[in-house]
Specification:
This protein is of the alpha/beta class and 313 residues long. It is built from 14 helices and nine strands. The protein has an eight-stranded parallel beta barrel with strand order 1-2-4-5-6-7-8-9, surrounded by five helices. The radius of gyration is 20 Å and the shape is globular. Bound molecules: flavin mononucleotide. Flavin mononucleotide (FMN) binds at residues 18-23, 44-45, 74, 101, 103-104, 143, 172, 180, 203-206, 224-227. Flavin mononucleotide (FMN) binds next to loops.
């Protein structure tokens, strides 16, 4: 098996955690893998220019634990030269593959003609894919959306990306113009799959593993994004409802891994938003909201969760 065949040979359906800036960092990827070791994960999007010019800081941000494998580095940009050095950095770090972001809709990214803006310059998009594919032994995938304001060029883009050397595509079934909470339009993905021979993953609006399997149709797999917030158990094969006490060991592992990877100060600050999602819907959650938003060290996290555990049980 050549590594370029990775996506063709991996067991189907492929199930994974979607890349999400501010969420899918090493600690959360580990947490989701802890719940279901068979999922794949993708890093938060990382600037190719940044990796090229100041790689040490970004390399720290990109670093991963070996238990996360297979993990894919997602890079964005539009400059051929910086993509080549970013690819090399990711390859040297030991990632299983490179994922190119052609879907990010953020104003700053689009203004720089990165992310989804590349769908307006398909020749440059194909050139970037080709360059990355020719400069690495790793499999190269592309994550994008249906299109700018509709899906009219999705099939042409999919074929172009495959011809340029992409080994897998993941399509978020919404357009650039659509916010994250409108219904995703999966029918365009089923149609695209008939026109390409590389694996195609669907993404958008999946609320559970069963929901993903129900939407699978002719696709090779799916990524789950927002439904994983405060709920890594969305990847669990066992759908029995979990009490707060059942959840606690996983929540504490997440906190531990966040502190381990980012240090106590940053880790504690960043766990707050996750804790708010973890306790949502449980008795005591509202009362302890302000305590959660002020946790300052690991012991604070443990004692606050302990208080909620008493309320919730
Ligand atoms: C907070 C947030 C950050 C995101 N960051 C990224 C990113 O870094 N790279 C990327 O390709 N997509 C990113 N996305 C898009 C998700 O990967 C996914 O395509 C989108 O959330 C739709 O899936 P969902 O409906 O399951 O959440 C982000 C989405 C959210 C909500």
């Amino acid at each position: 098996m050549t590594t370029k065949d990775y996506w063709k040979n991996i067991k189907k359906p492929i199930i994974g955690l979607a890349p999400m800036d501010g969420y899918s960092d090493s600690a959360f990827r580990r947490t989701c893998k802890f719940v279901n070791p068979d999922i794949i994960t993708v890093t938060e999007f990382t600037s190719a220019d940044g990796l090229h010019y100041s790689s040490e800081k970004l390399k720290r941000k990109l670093s991963f634990h070996e238990n996360e494998q297979p993990v894919f580095a997602q890079i964005f940009g539009k400059d051929i030269e910086t993509f080549i050095s970013a690819t090399k950095v990711c390859e040297d770090m030991g990632f299983t593959g490179i994922d190119i972001n052609m879907g990010c809709p953020s104003k700053k990214v689009v203004k720089s003609e990165h992310g989804i803006a590349l769908r307006k310059s398909p020749d440059l998009a194909y050139k970037l894919i080709e360059t990355v594919a020719n400069n690495t032994k790793l499999p190269v995938s592309v994550k994008t959306r249906l299109g700018w304001s509709d899906a009219s060029d999705l099939i042409a883009f999919g074929k172009g990306a495959e011809n340029a050397g992409a080994n897998m595509l993941c399509i978020h079934a919404r357009t650039y113009k659509e916010p994250y909470n409108v219904p995703a339009q999966w029918e365009h993905l089923y149609e695209l799959k008939k026109h390409i021979s590389i694996p195609l993953l669907g993404n958008g609006g999946i609320v559970s593993l069963q929901d993903g399997l129900d939407k699978l149709n002719n696709l090779d797999g799916f990524l789950i994004g927002q439904a994983s917030f405060g709920n890594p158990w969305v990847f669990s094969l066992d759908d029995k409802p979990l009490s707060f006490i059942d959840r606690l060991p996983v929540i504490l592992k997440h906190a531990e891994w966040l502190i381990e990877s980012k240090g106590e100060q940053i880790g504690t600050r960043e766990i707050r938003k996750h804790l708010l999602s973890y306790v949502k819907g449980f008795r005591g959650a509202k009362e302890y909201r302000s305590k959660i938003t002020h946790v300052g060290c690991y012991e604070d996290i443990v004692s606050t969760l302990d208080l909620i555990k008493k309320e919730a049980s």
